[in-house]
Design brief:
This protein is 83% helix and 0% strand. By secondary structure, the chain is mainly α. The termini are close together.
Length: 441
């Protein structure tokens, strides 16, 4: 017989559903990656990755940090449908406005830059992912702690997209079709998620007032700056490699990065689930939340370290499995970024899971802004000199420095996240008994 409190059962259920989603989000791209590289060639594959990286900037703009700020707000007002409805429509209208402005900005850039102009259709197709991102209210599902909706909708769309890639993409000239299928899957998931969210949570139409929109923008500002700065040194790598080293090198880096993201995906469901939980804990007691964070740091750090070490040791056979005869260009990149799952996992616990619920968004923004600026200064000369490997060196150095700065910022505020997690477990257990009670299953 196993004893589980309702809170723990809810967390376990959310983690399980998110693992189903992440399995499709990360394993499916890894499954189709060898096929796309062999069929499209590393040059065309790199061009597709470059276009997706370009569109990712507009996804960042339209997200505006809502995946964290709105999730946090929804978690605090779960039982008040009127407040949830008003926040929902405020976020959606802001995202739609930014999306329409983004179309104009992208079109202007593509027409103005000679290098982009020949592939204008490709960039337009890539923008479909932005539209899908705008409509898919992941932040609502996470805040309401209904992760199964995300899993079923997004995972199902990506499964269908993967199957269609094998059916319709057979030669190098099909590279636009390959991107169109992937963008269409995200667009379908976004629209389906939007409709299901309204019906499932019985959200009523509410025209937000200018004051509500202004408040929503203010609430997400620091997290938007943090997210935008983060993407400046993560998403920009593929983009900068494509600009300064060519599409082939962009293809190598993108391929290696997808492998690493697949490893990071193993912990994604855990971090996504515990974020609203820690936010709720922080409202009850700073010590309860910090105790949970310390325990999470031990488990998440340990698992991610093992995953990173395995990638580092087996970089060559992994690259040969994915890239085949083209593996030589990917192996050094993969070795440089192999430890990123561990470093980013620790960064996530210290930053998103601790600094945001503890009200340190401003300090987190400053760290990410400094990291973004430093990354650009470091990446460009390294990419010019070493190509895709230079981008790998840059991102590893920057991510490691971020962890150091986060720890220092938390320490300066009296938050000791590295205190023994053993003493944290009884505190969390007492909290579960006090607020949820025990239930025999």
């Amino acid at each position: 017989m196993t004893l589980l409190t309702p809170t723990r059962r809810k967390l376990l259920g959310n983690v399980t559903w998110l693992y189903a989603l992440q399995g499709l989000n990360y394993l499916l791209p890894l499954a189709v990656l060898p096929y796309l590289i062999r069929v499209l060639g590393v040059e065309r594959y790199g061009l597709v990755a470059f276009a997706q990286s370009f569109a990712q900037y507009f996804i960042i703009l339209t997200d505006y940090g809502f995946n964290l700020s709105a999730t946090n707000q929804i978690a605090r007002m779960q039982n008040d449908r009127e407040k949830v409805s008003r926040l929902f429509w405020s976020v959606i209208l802001i995202k739609l406005t930014v999306m329409l402005l983004g179309i104009l900005v992208m079109g202007s850039i593509v027409l103005a830059v000679p290098r982009f102009r020949p592939d204008a259709v490709l960039y337009l197709v890539a923008y479909g992912a932005v539209v899908g991102s705008v409509f898919f209210p992941i932040w609502l599902f996470q805040g309401m702690e209904r992760m199964r909706y995300i899993s079923l909708i997004s995972g199902g769309a990506k499964l269908v997209s993967a199957l269609l890639l094998f059916v319709f993409v057979h030669k190098q000239s099909d590279y636009i079709s390959a991107l169109a299928i992937q963008s269409a899957g995200l667009l379908f998931a976004g629209i389906a998620g939007f409709i299901i969210a309204i019906r499932s949570f019985k959200l009523a139409w509410r025209m937000p007032s200018p004051a509500e929109i202004a408040e929503t923008l203010r609430d997400g500002w620091h997290l938007f700056v943090s997210t935008a700065a983060t993407m400046a040194y993560t998403n920009s790598n593929v983009f900068l490699v494509g600009i300064f080293a060519g599409n082939a090198q962009a293809g190598y880096f993108s391929g290696a990065e997808k492998i690493i993201r697949g490893m990071q995906g193993l912990l994604g469901p855990v971090t996504q689930t515990i974020y609203p939980h820690i936010s709720a804990l922080a409202r009850e007691s700073r010590e309860y939340a910090l105790s949970f964070v310390r325990t999470s740091l031990i488990w998440i750090g340990g698992v991610s370290f093992v995953a990173s070490t395995l990638v580092l040791i087996f970089a060559a056979p992994i690259a040969h499995l994915i890239f085949g005869t083209l593996a030589a260009g990917c192996i050094p990149v993969l070795r440089w970024i192999a430890m990123l799952p561990f470093v980013i996992a620790v960064s996530n616990v210290l930053g998103i899971q601790t600094m945001v619920p503890f009200g340190l968004q401003r300090q987190l923004s400053r760290i990410y802004i400094a990291a973004g600026a430093g990354s650009l200064a470091l990446s460009i000369p390294l990419i010019r000199e070493y190509g895709a490997s230079g981008a790998g060196i840059s991102v590893l150095v920057v991510e490691t420095l971020i962890v150091c700065f986060m720890w220092r910022a938390l320490k300066s505020k009296g938050v000791d996240t590295f205190r023994s997690a053993v003493e944290a477990m009884p505190v969390v257990a007492r909290r579960e008994k006090r607020f949820a009670g025990q239930e025999t299953i």
